[in-house]
Amino acid sequence: MNWDDLRYLLTVERAGSMSAAARALGVVTSTVGRRMTALERRLGTRLFARVPEGVRLTPEGRALVRTAAAIESQLHSAERGLKHEEGQLDGPVRLTTGDGFVAFLNPWLASFRERHPGVRVELSADTRLLDLARQEADLGVRTVRPKGDSLVARKVGQLAWRLYASARYLSRAAPLRSPADLADHALVGFDAAIARMPQLQWLEEWGAGRFVFRSNAAVAVAGAVAAHQGVAALPCALASLHPELQPVLPEVELPLEDVWLVASREARKVPRVRAVMGFLAERFEASRSVMLGVR
Fold first, then answer.
1. Among 75, 91, 79, 193, which Cα is nearest to 134's?
2. CB 7: neighbour CB atoms within 10 A?
3. Beta carbons within 10 angstroms of residue 245's beta carbon
4. 146 contact partners, CB below 8 Å, separation of at least 6
5. Cα separation of 146 and 152, whole Å?
6. What pLDDT digit, counting tens, does each position of 243-258 carry?
7. pLDDT tens for residues 3-44?
8. Residues near 131 by Cβ (< 8 Å), separated by ≥ 6?
9. I want to staple 216 with a disulfide (CB 3.0 to 4.6 A). Which of 1, 163, 191, 257 is the partner?
10. Under a CB-based contact definition with an 8 Å cutoff, are residues 125 and 97 in contact?
11. At 234, is the secondary structure helix, strand, or coil?
């Protein structure tokens, strides 16, 4: 058994299907299938059960995945230890965050690269939170403080949320002077899983049944509001990127949302990860007024 076989196995388990794993690995689906079939033949056991939605691990497959994940963790630790000893400020840093942060992280990361051209930041914006403890990423921007001793978290600011609509929408819609007026307005919101956030509960309760657009992506919700579809609750920092948006019903106070930089204890030992973490902390502090919606 070689490490490449186990790497393919881990990718299939995390991606959920052979085709998704092939895309992540940069190969064709048949290559992944052949590797897994050959591995099963060598081990003399079934690792996967084929199901309509993709593949499901057998008990033997789950046991081998646990072993492979442990080996992967040890390999990452060994690599990070060597880099730490050498003091090299180069190589990749895998950064994960929600899509709402990407628009203003991009220019920040461009500035970071000017300081440290040897560091390559790989930014993943996904609704699925990558597991930092399992080293699926080196560093994360999170709005929930993680639990567990294997991760370290640094609070770097807070996000204010407000209700917004576009000037064009407001010019042609009914007056919006009080929360009761929302009964005459179209609303834009997030999908059911995200809508449970405290910052979104107020509008969900007031606007039940009047949502004309929903998405699991913050940039899509902001884009829909900018396209004059209705009223939405948005982070002030994201709304500030759309000059046509205006805050409405300023008397409605939505809860603040904490922002955390999170890394595993092992990743934090790596100089290039610490450099990215420190730089982002500086940028969040410098952008405090934007995050809080202070003009």
1. 75
2. 16
3. 22
4. 132, 153, 260, 262
5. 8
6. 999 999 999 999 999 9
7. 888 888 988 888 888 888 888 888 888 999 899 999 999 999
8. 137
9. 191
10. yes
11. strand
Side chain identity at residue 151, one-letter code: L
Q: Would you list the DSSP string of 23-61?
A: HHHTS-HHHHHHHHHHHHHHHTS--EEEETTEEEE-HHH
Which residue type is seen at 92?
Answer: P
Radius of gyration, alpha carbons of the chain: 23
Backbone angles phi, psi at 149, to 5 degrees: -80, -10
Q: Residue 256 carries which DSSP code?
A: P
- Is 60 exceeded by the pLDDT of residue 127? no
Which domains does the chain possess?
3-81 (1.10.10.10), 89-294 (3.40.190.290)
pLDDT tens digit sequence for 147-180:
877 888 999 999 999 999 999 999 999 999 999 9
Write the CB contacts of 295 (distance below 8 Å, at least 6 apart in sequence): none
Please report which confidence band the pLDDT of residue 261 belongs to, taking 50, 70 and 90 as the band edges: very high
Q: What pTM value is reported for the model?
A: 0.67
Find the angle CA(198)-CA(204)-CA(207) to the nearest 5 degrees.
150
> Quick count: other Cβ atoms within 10 Å of Cβ 251?
6
